[in-house]
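Could you join me in thinking about how sequence relates to backbone shape in a protein? To get us started, please write out a protein record for me. Would you write everything just below, so we can both look at the same thing?
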Amino acid sequence: MPIAASPVNKLLVLLWLCSAQALLGQLNNSIFQQKMPRKQWENQALFFHKNSEYFDPVAPGQTLLGAQFRSEIHKALGSGAFLSGGLMIQGLYGAQHSARIWQSASPVRLFPLLAFRYVHRKQRWQFGHLPGPLSHDLPETLMNYDWAWNRPVEYGIDHRIFHSKYRLNTWLDWRQLAIPNQSQQEIISAGTVVKPIWISREDFSMSSPISAMIYHQGGENLTQRKPLVTQINLSAGLRANLGPWEINSQFMHSRDASPQLRQPFQEGWASSSWIKHSRGQWEQALVLQTAHEFSAPLGAPLYSSVDRQEPYSTVRERCILQARLNYIHPLAVEGVRLDLRLDPMYDCLNQKFLISAGAYLKVEF
């Protein structure tokens, strides 16, 4: 059923346009994002395949093959308020043998979708399921785009401001509920990203994204006590866009503020710099990643010094030169898009080549 062109439903369109503003890390991850709704009831399917060959102590590489199906209904309540509800089903083929990816041994996972949104002028609040981990406009060093299938839905509170001079996003993601008699830890992550916009012209723009994130695992009230973990990540950078070109440089800091360290490094730093060219269906980027005793619980493991699953499996220094090729092509069938990615890399310190490749097909109806 098409959305009627009432003032309230026009706000629904504005709401989703705003939610699609912060998509870009090093690559255009729009295929993993929720677009502006064209219907009150929407369905989409995402088929994904990714293979990475890293042979690294922290990120050995893996092959993933699976699919997601998402169905959601949007209802405008009036005065800028909206309610959305639905369900996401995800199957990762062979997941019953992959404890590193799933908290559950089941190869099929269900994610309930229920959110209340309120839009007022240039601000938006959302409670329930959130826009997703890739909507925060963070570099992959801090937010791995593999979360699009490893944990595609966030739950909690999200607030955004879309001002002509800056963008602001603050969120809290309740990742896991504490169950004392099962000794299941509470896991919470939260963050703020602010992006002052210094220049905004049609042919040139410049901004300086700044972020602060915290990741916490509780365990003090469990039947079988588990160690408390609190990790903090800070970042600051500069981004310039000139026509089809983007130049971006980010500096990141990590600190483990846990009462007792669960990893060898209390503090560390990382940097990520890239130049990207986008034209038509093609996107190419050249990236330099460096790190020293750096840890980011939600970031890509290849750019970290610490394995989150085995904290004493470490790589103290990182220096990776990476070429990225991304091809996005709408197919002849309406609502179907193909995303192909190839990432050849060179580990400058260990003098070896690494590679990652992926294929993603999205169907919206």
